[in-house]
């Protein structure tokens, strides 16, 4: 019996645009330990409308496959399936759940659930000095940009403050003068200011308002 550990078939190419050309990548993108950087890399990836792991994977899934996931002290990965795949609370009953997913696909009715999901991942895992990178495709790109905006406007709540997240998101959506004043006060009182190291988005598709 062989004692060698099994290896996973990591993809080495990613399709570029509609031309059919491909871009070559290394088998695995390392966590950056060779750079001797402080803190960890927290990488959040938001897939496109209706996209998830299946027989026709998006470039977001292919990108996630390339990332190191075996050392949480150096790097943590968060992947979220696309709008319209049922992320967040769903109505009971097969028929109503299907309607909910259809509406989510059409008008991104569950955008808030997607943004808050990424926010809570950071809330539970971020430590001072960690590097945050956010990636997104299609409506996932819009989700990524909304999350970056929320972190800028209201900051990041400490871990386990889940009850405050809906209120923080509500203030993030307010774009009037009073909303900005309240956001600044909330940020100073409850949150920490975090720096986003990188935002990588492509083919951004807007949602019908902020839900």
From TrEMBL:
SUPFAM superfamilies found in the cross-reference section: alpha/beta-Hydrolases (SSF53474)
Membrane-spanning residues: none
Region Disordered, annotated ranges: 1-21
Domain T6SS Phospholipase effector Tle1-like catalytic: 40-210
PANTHER family in the cross-refs: PTHR33840, TLE1 PHOSPHOLIPASE DOMAIN-CONTAINING PROTEIN
Record's protein name: T6SS Phospholipase effector Tle1-like catalytic domain-containing protein
């Amino acid at each position: 019996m062989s004692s060698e550990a099994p290896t996973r078939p990591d993809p080495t190419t990613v399709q570029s645009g509609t031309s059919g050309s491909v871009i070559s990548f290394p088998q695995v993108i390392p966590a950056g330990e060779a750079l001797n950087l402080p803190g960890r890399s927290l990488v959040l990836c938001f897939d496109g409308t209706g996209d998830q792991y299946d027989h026709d994977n998006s470039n977001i899934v292919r990108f996630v496959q390339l990332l190191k996931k075996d050392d949480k002290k150096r790097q943590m990965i968060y992947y979220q399936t696309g709008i319209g795949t049922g992320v967040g609370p769903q109505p009971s009953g097969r028929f109503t759940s299907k309607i909910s997913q259809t509406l989510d696909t059409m008008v991104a009715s569950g955008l808030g659930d997607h943004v808050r999901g990424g926010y809570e991942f950071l809330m539970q895992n971020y430590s001072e000095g960690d590097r945050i990178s956010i990636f997104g495709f299609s409506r996932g790109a819009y989700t990524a940009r909304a999350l970056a905006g929320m972190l800028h406007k209201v900051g990041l709540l400490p871990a386990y403050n889940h009850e405050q997240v809906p209120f923080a998101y509500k203030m993030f959506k307010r774009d009037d003068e009073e909303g900005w004043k309240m956001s600044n006060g909330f940020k100073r009182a409850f949150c920490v200011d975090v720096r986003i190291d990188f935002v990588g988005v492509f083919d951004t598709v807007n949602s019908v308002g902020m839900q």
